Amino acid sequence: MCVGIASTKTLAKLANHAAKKGLAGKDGVCDFGSLSPRALDDLFEQIPVSEVWGVGRRLDVRLAELSIGTVRQLRDASPTLIRERFSVVLERTVRELRGVSCLDLEDIAPPKQQIMASRSFGTPVFDLEQLSQAVASHTTRAAEKLRAQQCVAGAITVSIRSNPFKPWEPQYNQGAVVPLLEPTADTRALINAALWGLGKIYRPGYAYKKAGVLLSGLESAGRRQGSLLADPKREARAAALMAAMDQINDRWGRGSVRPLATGFGGDWRMRREKLSPAWTTRWDEVPAVRAS
Fold first, then answer.
1. How far apart are CA 281 and CA 254, in angstroms?
2. How far is CA 76 from CA 72, 91, 99, 161, in A?
3. Which CATH number does the domain 115-223+231-262 belong to among 1.20.1260.10, 3.30.460.80, 3.10.20.90, 3.30.1490.100?
4. pLDDT of the residue at 266
5. Where are the alpha helices (DSSP H) in the chain?
6. I need a surface site. Which of 17, 108, 123, 177 has the fewest CB within 10 A?
7. pLDDT one-digit tens code per residue, 121-164
8. 120, 142, 144: which is closest to 211 by C-alpha?
9. H or E element: which one contains 270?
10. Burial bucket for residue 240 (CB in 10 Å: 0-12, 13-18, 19+)
11. DSSP class of residue 2?
12. For the chain, how far is it from start to end, CA to CA, in angstroms?
């Protein structure tokens, strides 16, 4: 992992590139603020303009026609000329390279348009019951993410596949889109739809390696289209139940309360013997140093 530090978004990404390539900085960290203007000039002269965030191959060729081939040459180019020949976007890039912030940082990530949850199995899965547990587990996780961004889903796609890295074995790869009668974030309704779709695509005789679900047709829960047949009291109870489940799992750990359809373990769960330590998020995994 490398870190780039600078006064603008474009420069920070460039600093990260310099850290990765070992062009500047130390121990994977490059801070442009610690470099002198002359050192920055020398560094920017080494880096091709194609490494600048937002400059693709087509722009690289067109910039070369103006004798702009390095980051320094792009930074020193006339913003007015760049805007006339290219676009206001590239003009902002030039200004960002000069330390003028033109791209706002996102304090809150925008809501996702789709939410996916999928995992490879620890061992091959053959029977429908194990696949159902895996699909229900993935749907539960996707529904939690859906509620976290206060949205509802209009459809769910369930997919299963065998191991493509074992071509000598029978291969199967299939998915099904299940539209929902009403957009929802209720885990129970989403699981029912996902398992119905799984039943349509499941075929015995294959060693399944992976299953996943994709929530689509997302919209804000507060602005979703209502139904004349909806029961407001029932919807309120369902929302309260989901909120209670999320609160319990937030406090006591993911999976403390979960639907019975997810099962109680199983060989399908992903192997985690070599999982990287979570030193920055779990107190019980923080390394302890004792003086001898």
1. 14
2. 6, 11, 12, 52
3. 3.30.1490.100
4. 65
5. 9-21, 37-46, 57-64, 71-75, 79-85, 88-97, 128-148, 187-201, 232-252
6. 108
7. 888 999 999 999 999 999 999 999 999 988 999 999 999 999 99
8. 120
9. none
10. exposed
11. -
12. 32
| C-alpha count within 13 angstroms, C-beta hemisphere, residue 116 | 7
Predicted confidence band at 171 (pLDDT cuts at 50, 70, 90)?
A: very high
- With 0-12 / 13-18 / 19 or more C-beta atoms within 10 angstroms meaning exposed / middle / buried, residue 145 is middle
Distance CA 56, CA 263 (A): 48
Spatial separation of the C-alpha atoms in residues 118 and 104, rounded to whole Å: 32
209 touches 121 (CB < 8 A): yes
Looking at residue 226, the DSSP 8-state letter turns out to be P
Domain ranges within the chain, ordered by starting residue:
3-97, 115-223+231-262
d(CA 281, CA 253): 12
Tell me if 282 sits within 8 A of 140, measured CB to CB: no
Superfamily of domain 3-97: 5' to 3' exonuclease, C-terminal subdomain (1.10.150.20)
What phi and psi values does residue 244 have, to the nearest 5 degrees?
-65, -40
Q: What are phi and psi of 93, to 5 degrees?
A: -60, -45
Question: Taking the model in full, what pTM does it have?
Answer: 0.62
Tokens describing residue 7: 């006064």
Chain-centroid distance, C-alpha 241: 27
